[in-house]
Structure formats: structure tokens, C-alpha cells
Amino acid sequence: MTTTHSDSSSRISHRAGRSAAAVTGLGAVATALVLAAPGAGAVPQNVGADPGRSMGISTPFGTTCTYQVRAAVDNTTEPVTFFDNNVMVGFNPAVVTPNGIVASTTWTPPNPGTHFLRAEQGGVSVTSAPMEVSTGMNAGTGCAVP
What's the superkingdom here (predicted)? Predict the structure, then answer.
């Protein structure tokens, strides 16, 4: 019986050792990921514009119309700066403090063409997918984009 008990405690001790090693290994991996994260503490996650009630044949975005722009961020206190084609134009305001994990502003596209919106926080930025903008006709509650 002593041998069986000894084998059993040996197996338990061996399993406990493997579990502790696994937990320690996971902790080391998690620490490495946090330390390797670029710009940790100030990284915009995504940025985009909401077309709202705007409608058009090829795009819902039109000049003279205003759209809500949002950027998801992981730093709730550092300001976020918005750019349209690398210029701080068309935003009201262009620099905002996040409300929780979202920074938002309004954007009126200044001209037709392809636009890339960018949100920058703490020197790190994220850029939207290309958005086509046409000449718009502001209808008050929406925008008609021919």
C-alpha cells in the first residue's frame, strides 16, 4: 500500500509541477506580448464614417453633407486627431478627447474624390478603407448624392 500511495502522490506531484510550469509559461507569453505591443496605451483600433440617411447611386458620401466619424481607441484620456487625406480639414472639431473607448467628431467632405480618413493618438494612427465622395445635395435630414 505504501508503494501505491507513493506512486499516487508522485503522479499528483508531477501533474502539479506540469500545471505550474504551464501557468508560468503562459504568464511569460502574456508579459512578452504586452511589452512587445507597439504604442501600448495609445493605439487607435479603427476609424470610419457613418453615412446616416445619405443615399447615392455609387456612394452615400457627398460634399456639403455632414457625417459622424468614430474611432475606437484603447486610451480614454489622450486626444485623438482626425485627418482627411492627411490634412486636418472638414472635421468639427479635428482634435477630440475620447468619450470612453470611442473618439467621435463630424466630417463634411471638402471635395469629390477618394478620401482616406485617419485617426491618430499618441503618434500611432489607423486609416479607413477608401471612401468615394461625390457632389452632394444636403437635404437637412440626409444627403442626396447623384
Answer: Bacteria
